[in-house]
Model the fold of this input.
Amino acid sequence: MSVSSEASTVFVEVLTDEELAILAGPGDTVVSPFWSADDQDAETRDVVLRTAYRGLLARGIVDPPTPQARVEALGEPAVELQVRGDVQALVTLRLGARVVVAIARTTALTQDFWYAHVVEDVVLVEEVGSDGMHRFALAPVDTLTDLVVGAAVHPETRDGSGEPVELPAGSTEPSIEVAEALGAALVRADVVVRTVAGEHPQLIGLFTGPGGAWVLSEGTEGAVVVRPSTRAAVEAELGDAVRAVVARAYG
Done:
């Protein structure tokens, strides 16, 4: 499920949490496993950002500073830096997306995060590992549904079985049958589709793998509904949710 393995994507760059803090400034959409300005004192923050800045220089992502460059303002959106064209483009797309599909993925061994930033007919894919590395790739918007399915659904998923179960609001202990079914899934994916229009974000919880597929959705009065599903139905549900939001955002 790596962005580099998708035939429809074109790899752009890998950036760290701290490098993105310099290039893009603060943000609240994408996780930063190793960076939080609020958790650091001013001196530590300055050292970390200057170290990251030197890394950007060494890799040719930014040009050496001119006398006019306000390097002392590292990490602020108004920083005047000469950024390599492809990286500046991905930063611009990331900031300008009107639709973002965010997927938090959990397996028995790992947890990572996957994002699709949609801007008109382009998708900027961003995969964030537990190592704090952000891997970027570009893809056409007509591949968005396939990309989301590939990121959220285990490739060997089979159909689930059983009856839907509603868990009351605040319930933390599902029945043994439900717990066993969900525990058999190899990938848990929490899919959130957000827009800048202020709409209530749509959330779809998925448990998938060779043992079956289950979907978690909002029920009445804060309850959570756990229902078995087929692989085809899961893919259709994801596709419909994403296409509907993109259509409202871009027409």
The longest strand covers residues 111-119. The mean pLDDT is 86. The beta strands are 10-16, 99-106, 111-119, 122-128, 133-140, 165-167, 187-195, 202-209, 212-218, 224-229. The radius of gyration is 20 Å.
